[in-house]
């Protein structure tokens, strides 16, 4: 039996009662460690859950997941996921593979950024398509996500921007070596995302595009460590967001719709130093 258990967004205590009960009776417990992060360490989780936890990094989940599925054929196995189990396509693929092999599975849901983003006061049913902002390099600067932001704005919808995470990424040099070497973990901040968005604005202007989805004066909402006691939320212009430091990861960014409901505006105001 395979249990895919959401851990929520804060720390080890955010697990549901049902999730904790299942973990305590499982023979093997794996922790997915590369699509998101918790603010606590593995040791704290082991102490609270009363189980030894095996960290399943990117290589394990993408290349060696069969080991876990083999175990799930004869044992009760828990696969722990930060946020909600369906917050990443990798987890969906794992569940489909279990189903194909006839392995019984159960999903235990929890909070994710997709619903906890409501903490900034913007109504969840007014969000359009969620987009991801990747890290740019000197030679690779994709901006296709801009068109999705533009479409959301045209329809009067908010846009949640998920910011890039780089965990256990192999170095370019190690690609040709037998022994892999990895870059240090890297998490995009709201200031880095704002900087890239401002560059897109300048590019669109230089191309003579008159109607742009947003500009340097557009109000954005920066969110950091949502669900944790140290969470921070700030509402300011995109130009100001570039210079804001919201501290440790994880960060997300929201572009509100042009026309806010009065309740949305009133709630969002508490996160801004200036009138919205």
UniProtKB/TrEMBL annotation:
Pfam families: TP_methylase (PF00590). The keyword Coiled coil does not apply. Pathway: Protein modification; peptidyl-diphthamide biosynthesis. Its EC number is 2.1.1.314. GO terms for biological process: methylation; protein histidyl modification to diphthamide. Residues 1-178 form the Tetrapyrrole methylase domain. It comes from the Eukaryota. Keywords: Methyltransferase, S-adenosyl-L-methionine, Transferase. Belongs to the diphthine synthase family. HAMAP family: Diphthine_synth (MF_01084). S-adenosyl-L-methionine-dependent methyltransferase that catalyzes four methylations of the modified target histidine residue in translation elongation factor 2 (EF-2), to form an intermediate called diphthine methyl ester. The four successive methylation reactions represent the second step of diphthamide biosynthesis. PANTHER family: DIPHTHINE METHYL ESTER SYNTHASE, DIPHTHINE SYNTHASE. This is diphthine methyl ester synthase.
